[in-house]
Design brief:
alpha+beta; Endonuclease III, domain 1; Nucleoside Triphosphate Pyrophosphohydrolase; DNA damage; 4Fe-4S; 8-oxo-7,8-dihydroguanine DNA N-glycosylase activity; hydrolase; nucleus
Length: 403
């Protein structure tokens, strides 16, 4: 499961880099980082892109990235921004803690590291909050030329196919081995380009379900492709070691209909937790007759930290509509310090939103208030906004669905 022939490693590097030079996508962070002579500014451009690309598709990230870099072109500019501004720009991108940690780390670089980014993957991971092993490797190799590998979802898939690694790709044994492989094969003279080439190959050619093996520039180095082309080898994955932790168990035999997509295998996905939440859209007419909504701010930690939302109350499962209406009325009354009649809550409908680990249903109610209604004493922080102001606020995609 390793690359043991130096000549093969050299050929793999040459073939992959030649393909990358011909075929790489024109992406804004590559253009920006490639044109930036200052290594700290280059590292910042790469860093922002890598954080945004975690769990998010390239097509979605491009507009966010361009807006971010236009607003905060340097670490110093980001360090001076408020969390509210960061959340407003991040709204809709998901996994909101990423933006918060990015800003926290920028402030640390400016205040504690004299504005100078750490130069190695080890120091980046150790000194910057929110920077894990992969992000540190990407920044260090692309921005500072450190010959260190990277392992993300695309690289996992490529390396598992290249080396016929068929065990659960999320297991510690497989992940540790893939880091060993990545560090062994990374090109010493062009580590950043090589790592980007591996990721690009996984994103555009070595796809999860319909890989374009005929177009793959390194198929001659791919054991999975050779297995499909020539038939099964002696062992279950062509490995002669009994009980190899990188081969799949005997209970999961090779499926010839899957071809190279036999690799990698993944553990069964954990089912998301099911949750229900009552949401009340409090409405009033402002001084110019415009409809206004009341927003409250979520806690500074946890899910959707620091974002604004409509007053909400988690509900027990199987709670009848009459009971959930009463529970919401009691919650609003305690929160507002004003009587709220359950009968005054108008049921609008339900909205489903899927988080990575939660299947969330929002039961939406509305409650009109008098135009002069004020709630200055409520906690947590709250504010009245027009619909236009709502969409410009740091609100989640789920709350936009509620509207």
């Amino acid at each position: 499961h390793l690359f043991s022939d130096p000549a093969e490693v050299g050929a793999l590097r040459r073939d992959l880099l030649a393909w990358y030079d011909r075929s790489k996508r024109d992406l804004p962070w590559r253009t920006l980082a490639g044109s930036e002579p200052d290594p700290d500014r280059r590292a910042y451009a790469v860093w922002v892109s890598e954080i945004m690309l975690q769990q998010t598709q390239v097509a979605t990230v491009i507009d966010y990235y361009n807006r971010w870099m236009q607003k905060w072109p340097t670490l110093q500019a980001l360090a001076q921004a408020s969390l509210e501004e960061v959340n407003e720009l991040w709204a809709g991108l998901g996994y909101y803690s990423r933006g918060k940690r990015l800003q926290e780390a920028a402030r640390k670089v400016v205040s504690e590291l004299e504005g100078r980014m750490p130069r190695t993957a080890e120091d980046l991971q150790k000194l910057l909050p929110g920077v894990g092993r992969y992000t540190a490797g990407a920044i260090a190799s692309i921005s500072f030329g450190q010959a260190t590998g990277v392992v993300d979802g695309n690289v996992i898939r490529v390396l598992c196919r290249l080396r016929c690694i068929g065990a659960d790709s999320s297991s510690p044994a497989v992940i540790d081995h893939l880091w060993d492989v990545a560090n062994a094969v990374v090109d010493r003279s062009r580590p950043g380009d090589f790592n980007q080439a591996l990721m690009e190959l996984g994103a555009t050619v070595c796809a999860p379900k319909a890989p374009l093996c005929g177009e793959c520039p390194v198929k001659q180095h791919c054991r999975a492709w050779h297995r499909v082309s020539t038939g099964p080898a002696s062992g279950p994955e062509g490995c002669c070691a009994v009980g190899c932790p990188l081969c799949p168990p005997a209970a999961e035999p090779w499926d010839s209909s899957l071809g190279v997509t036999n690799f990698p295998r993944k553990a069964a996905k954990k089912q998301p937790r099911v949750a229900r939440t009552a949401v009340c859209v409090l409405e009033r007419r402002g001084c110019h007759g415009a409809l206004q909504y009341l927003l409250v701010q979520r806690p500074s930690s946890g899910l959707l930290a620091g974002l604004w939302e409509f007053p909400s109350l988690p509900l027990a499962q199987d709670l009848q509509e009459e009971k959930q209406r009463e529970a919401l009325a009691d919650h609003l009354q305690a929160w507002m310090g004003q009587p709220v009649a359950a009968g005054g809550l108008r049921l609008i409908g339900e909205v489903v939103h899927i988080f990575s680990h939660i299947h969330q249903t929002y039961v939406v109610y509305s409650l009109p208030l008098d135009g002069d209604a004020t709630l200055d004493s409520v906690s947590p922080p709250s504010r009245w906004v027009t619909e236009e102001e709502f969409h410009a606020s740091a609100v989640s995609t789920a709350m936009k669905k509620v509207v």
